[in-house]
Each structure stands twice: as C-alpha cells, then as structure tokens.
C-alpha cells in the first residue's frame, strides 16, 4: 500500500515537472540559432529533486506530449519536430536529467555535489544537442553548418546562461530537497524504530 502511494506521488511529481518544463519553454531569452529558455533549469531540477529515473521520465513525458502535437516545445510541437536541429537538446534534457539525478544521489546532497551533477547534466545536454544539430543540418535538411559556427552559436552563445542556471538551480534544489524528502526520511525513521 505504501509503495503504491509513493509511486503515485512520484508520478504526480513527474507530471508536475513535465508541465513546469512546458512553461519553461515559453520563458525565452532571444539568442540566435538555438532558443534559450528555462527548460534546462526545469529538467535539471527534475533530476535533482526526483532522482535520475523519475527526472528522466518527466522529461520523456514532456517530449512525448510535444511530439503528439501539443505545442509545448519552444517552437511548437508535432512529430515533425524531430527534424528540427534543436530537437537534440530535448533529447539531451532527458539524458542530462538522468545523469544529474544519479550523480546527485550518490551521497549527501551538498551544494557542491548538486552543482557538479548539474554541470555533468549540462555537458550531456550540449553534447547530444550539438551532435544532433550537426547531423540534422548536414545530412537531413541540407543546410550545412561547419563545426566552428556550430560551436559558437550552439554552445558559446547559450552556455553562459545555463551555467548561471546551474548555480541558481543548485541553491534552489538544496532548499527544496528537505521539503520533498521529508516523507522519505520519516518512513526510514519509522522502519529503523520497528526493526
């Protein structure tokens, strides 16, 4: 019974973070080529607060809803979105959330651990996002882009804002983790007292 409640709680939180990511997609800061939004912050918070598996699941839910045609991506929605060069960043959010959550839970959730795990997730987002961008531009939509401009527009122009979001998000997660984890801590205490 208690396991089912916890699973339902996690599913509700996954849906909440999928919705939060959708809202984050519409908070845009104008940057050429790749739209800069608050999606990275939302997906990283999902990893930090829900853990790797559930954080990635929330991002996968967000992506699935967008591909089904709900216009929740930064530039619309629909199955055709997979042919947009920036779609790789959405896939990167899923991997980044997973890695962030896994690394953050490997010990005490200190600000430093959260920050480092956020940077690892950020690296995954940009690595996957830029690789996808390059492949789609050069081999699918026949709009060639060299590595230099790709690196400049898809990394250097956008990453400073995301680095700032890592610092801010790690502080926010540090404050929210005790609130979300309170129930889990109480359950562990009760189990320890009864054994």
Task: Summarize the structure in words.
The chain has 195 residues and is mainly alpha-helical. The protein has one domain: Arp2/3 complex 21 kDa subunit ARPC3, CATH 1.10.1760.20. The protein has helices spanning 2-25, 39-50, 52-67, 87-104, 111-140, 147-156, 159-194; strands at residues 28-29, 36-37. Strands 1-2 form a two-stranded antiparallel ribbon. Helix 1 (2-25) crosses helix 3, helix 2 (39-50) runs antiparallel to helix 3 and helix 4 runs antiparallel to helix 5 (111-140). The chain is globular. It holds the Pfam family BioY. It is found in: Cell membrane. One of its GO terms (molecular function) is biotin transmembrane transporter activity. It is a multi-pass membrane protein.
Topology:
Blueprint: H1 2-25, E1 28-29, E2 36-37, H2 39-50, H3 52-67, H4 87-104, H5 111-140, H6 147-156, H7 159-194
Antiparallel strand pairs: 1-2
Provide a compact summary of the structure:
By secondary structure, the protein is mostly helical. Helix content is 75%, strand content 2%.
| Class computed from helices, strands and strand pairing | mainly alpha
> Under the CATH scheme, which architecture would be assigned?
Orthogonal Bundle
Anisotropy-based shape: globular
Total of domains: 1
Mean pLDDT figure: 91
Uncertain segments: none
Text of the CATH class: Mainly Alpha
Helix content, binned percent: over 70%
> Could you tell me the radius of gyration in angstroms?
18 Å
CATH third-level topology: Arp2/3 complex 21 kDa subunit ARPC3
Number of discrete helical segments:
7
Strand content: under 5%
Task: Summarize the biggest pleated sheet.
Answer: 2 strands, antiparallel
């Amino acid at each position: 019974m208690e396991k089912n409640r916890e699973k339902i709680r996690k599913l509700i939180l996954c849906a909440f973070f999928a919705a939060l990511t959708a809202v984050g997609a519409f908070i845009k800061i104008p940057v050429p080529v790749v739209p800069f939004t608050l999606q990275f912050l939302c997906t990283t918070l999902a990893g930090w607060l829900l853990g790797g598996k559930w954080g990635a699941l929330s991002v996968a839910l967000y992506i699935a809803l967008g591909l089904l045609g709900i216009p929740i991506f930064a530039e619309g929605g629909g199955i055709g979105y997979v042919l947009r060069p920036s779609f790789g960043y959405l896939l990167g959010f899923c991997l980044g959330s997973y890695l962030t959550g896994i690394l953050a839970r490997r010990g005490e959730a200190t600000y430093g651990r959260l920050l480092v795990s956020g940077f690892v997730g950020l690296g995954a987002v940009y690595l996957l996002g830029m690789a996808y961008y390059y492949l789609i531009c050069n081999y699918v939509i026949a709009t060639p882009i060299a590595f230099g401009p790709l690196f400049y527009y898809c990394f250097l122009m956008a990453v400073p804002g995301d680095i700032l979001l890592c610092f801010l998000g790690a502080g926010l997660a540090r404050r929210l983790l005790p609130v979300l984890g309170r129930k889990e801590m109480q359950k562990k205490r009760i189990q320890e007292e009864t054994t």
